[in-house]
């Protein structure tokens, strides 16, 4: 059974303070896990672009400015 966001919020209001704190901690952990997965996905995409020669690294500021001006 699916609940609307408003129903979930109303259900959370009915929880005890300890349950709300536990839920808050769980949500914090879930958000961290999602962000880590996003970072990993971006890293893997970057590695793939590097392998395909779509990106290049530069150690000089002038070279970097030149590369950026062509994009």
What do you see in this structure?
This protein has 71 residues and is mainly α. The protein has helices at residues 5-13, 17-51, 61-69. It has one domain (5-69). It is elongated and about 60 Å long.
Q: Count of helical segments?
A: 3
Averaged pLDDT, please? 91
> How many domains?
1
Fraction of residues in H or I helices: over 70%
Structure, briefly:
With about 70 residues, this protein is mostly helical. The chain is about 75% helix and about 0% strand.
What tags apply to this protein structure?
mainly alpha, about 70 residues, elongated, 3 helices
Write the layout of secondary structure elements.
Layout: H1 5-13, H2 17-51, H3 61-69
């Amino acid at each position: 059974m699916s609940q609307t966001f408003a129903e979930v919020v109303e259900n959370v209001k009915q929880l005890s303070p300890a349950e709300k704190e536990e839920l808050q901690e769980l949500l914090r952990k879930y958000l961290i896990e999602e962000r880590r997965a996003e970072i990993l996905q971006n890293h893997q995409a970057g590695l793939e672009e590097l392998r395909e020669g779509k990106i290049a690294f530069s150690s000089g500021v002038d070279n970097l400015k030149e590369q950026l001006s062509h994009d």
